Fold each of these.
Amino acid sequence: MTGNQASPTPSSTRTTPAAAGRTAPETSLEVVLAATGVAKAYWRGMWPARRRTPVLRGVDLELAAGEVVGLVGENRSGKSTLMKILVGELAADTGSVTHGGRVGYCPQEPVVYERLTCDEHFELFGRAYGLTDESERASRALIYSQLGFERYAAARADRLSGGTLSKLNLGLALLADPEVLLLDEPYAGFDFDTYLKFWDLVAQRRQAGRSVLIISHFVTDEERFDRIVQLRDGQAVPR
């Protein structure tokens, strides 16, 4: 989970339609994340049959300020690979990624320290983000309240249930109030009440002009997204 201070905001804009069920007019919004021509291939198989298999074949993707976008695709379509490239965890073979602000990343598998408590995780990540003690504590309290796991503040990560661990994983990505939030299957393990709290949180971020990109194997609440992009044959296409 990382939150990087990125390069200056791209100067391009995107014309973004209202999400399903909304009546707002189309507006031109500042692009806060842009991927251009992103390609990635992996070596697979055993020698002498070992060969490079393309996963991403020139992906173009933009995310505008205040936009909530779903990224879907079949298993092994490259969704997590693309997410790792967008956040800088993985290098693309070709192409470029530009983002204009702090990025919060929630990976599919939580990256935590087993012997640290939830509070200690927030303190550690707060220092990594360069937050003041006061702002870290305020953000932590808000996250506990929004996701409903304050009672586990002093619990070690290795003693958390899968659902609470997912809350901590998401909370660490949210801690620095990033302009761009990249979420890879963020609600795995959530009960229905937490699932609804998650979407309330996403709606609040949209209202505040923050952007969210969410990977999902399936989309049941399409009206919650401004648009959905599918990875198909290594490229990003509107759905």
Amino acid sequence: MGSGLSGSELMEFIDRGEIPALDVVRADAVRAFRYMKSGGVSVLPLDVSYAIFAATARGVERIFELKNRKPTKPNGIVGNWDIFSDVLKTVPRDKDLVRCLTQDHDLPLSVIAPYAVEHDWLRTVEFGALRRATKEGTMDLLLNAGALHNELARMSWDSATPLMGSSANVSLAGSKFRLEDVEESVRQGSDFVLGYGTSRYINDHGIGSTIIELPTWKVLRWGGLFEKQAEIVKKQFGVELTPRPKEGPLTLT
């Protein structure tokens, strides 16, 4: 347990080197969840990139501090189909899109949409944490980003404990697909750090999941799998998503 990387004396560091068996993934999810629910910050391996999450207002503020992230840029939230379909305000066409990409084709996806402010799932979340993960009545849900992510999403839904965060990197430094590439300051400042080797969807663009706004279907970030997702959307729905820019930023958020 561990590698050449090191963390602070007070943190827990586990580098498994690759995605382990499902029972180990589930145990890792429980460990990470406990850290976050008790106020800690966790660096975790997702299929789209390494990410950093928290569940409390102070934990979320620590993420912003570690990343040097602009306070006006909201975090994303760990999601699954239950959270998406029950908390976000969407129409059947939106649900068809998300089901097609995340279930029928088993791809990760982030969506931004209006949410039900009074939903019971949000009953325990601290205002400071939610404020950093919403904007103008919308929230950003990450869906289907690997076994660990999906297990955490299930636990989040079952216990009404939203988990909020973003990619594990200093802001604007690009997504990290290997634990050793996550800046030492980010690792050292976290309470739990977990490694599963190289992220499944590593890409030359240095970016994680595609983000689509609902109900407009406007692309807000062209993720590593965007071209594959765009091809599916065109074939299944007859909609041509805006192509990846040939120059300039790959995110509008």
Amino acid sequence: MLAFMNLPVYSYNETDDFAILKVHEMGLEMPYLTPTFRPDFYTLMIVLDGAGTLVSGNEVFEVGPGNVFMKRPDIYFSSGWTEMKTVYNISFSREFIADILPFGMEEFLEMDNSNGLNYLFNQEDIKRFEDICLEIYAEAISMTTFKYEMISNLLVNILLLIQQHQNAVELAIQNEKHDVIFTAFCRNLDQNFNGLISGETDVVLRLREHAELLNITENNLSKIISKSSGKTINQWINAKLIDEITYLLKNTDKSMSEIAQLYGFRELKQFYSFFKKHTSKTAISVRNDFNASQNELTHIYKGDVVNIRPSW
């Protein structure tokens, strides 16, 4: 490829499985446009300072300072550069590092069948890439016996840095998606209880109904809510039920039967059992204890001494 473009073919790149180039030292006249090739190796572009456009398959990637680009083999590839100050190009075959690949790296190298990865790193992280590139370059031009073993290990370090960043990006995207779903679940939960208190419905929505509202599977919804909040869907619903029931016990004169019916309990015994299970108190004792504690509480309203709440 270098010979085809009339660019220097350096003698230290003596194997077909690996090459490293300081592209900024190759004398490219800006702007520079390469032909389209279909390399059978992985390509890494580490851009410390430069600006260009990389075309991999049918995808276009803009690169600038801090970008690290990676392309898998057997994809049509070309590049165009408008600025070239510090750019490293590393090419390698899978066989070159196959013997030392850590667990999970094989899957990463498939790149989800995408044509390219392009990530932007901060100044500190991109400096780590440059340091490793310089170490690789120093080994490449050396005459040491085990230089390719050293290079392959250093190369895996670069791949691990990219994989780590990819995982962080995917996690952030996943968390954002999960946050949206969790927020929607909480909104639907509130709307359900608003409907219960207004009499528009007498059904407390559970996992199946909430999953249908959000158009996702019950299993996925359960996992998302648990991971996002540390609580299960039933814990959220039951806690909401207890809060609503407790409020009515303390602040209204609704009978136990009315409250039970309002929240979908078909039998009063079931209502009593549910409340006792989740609070370790009976519904009657909660109401009575609250009434007793409020008897002596008064405040001044427009010059008159009045009870904090109306008597029943």
Amino acid sequence: MKTHAIQIGQQHRELQIVNVGEVSVALLNLLGDAALTEAAAEALHAAMPDDIDAFVTPEVKAVPLAHAISYRTGIPYVVARKTEKPYMVNVVKKTVVSITTGEPQNLVIDGSDLDKIRGKKVAIIDDVVSTGGTLNGLQELLEEVGGTVIAILVVFTEGDRRDDVIALGHLPLFPKEAGV
């Protein structure tokens, strides 16, 4: 198994390199890794701007990170779900394509969460941004509902480096055959 080493605070991990279509990626998975999530939350909290009113995160892998930063700051967060749930009212949604899924998927915000976003300065929290498909779709969705995105907080950029995000580090893309 090929891996790529990362370090966040005192937390060291060997990320497995996996194929995701035409390339392979070092797979960051915060789900179930409380120590790494907390280290990332602490570092991103220290790097974020002061005037954020709300956080928005895409479902699923960045949710624990958004929760940890929200807990530290007292700033509420909203999850952009991947599917519309029966209990949701007046949803707003956008279809995006992510490098990890390679398939169209929805970003859905429950209408009951819109007051946390509308007229607010919002920071997007995500684990990794690569092609920007999810990020761009989420930014457009937030602007459509009246939020102003003032920061994008991610653990890592991937592929091309980006100047439009606050990131703790960068992950390279690997040739397809580099994976398992």
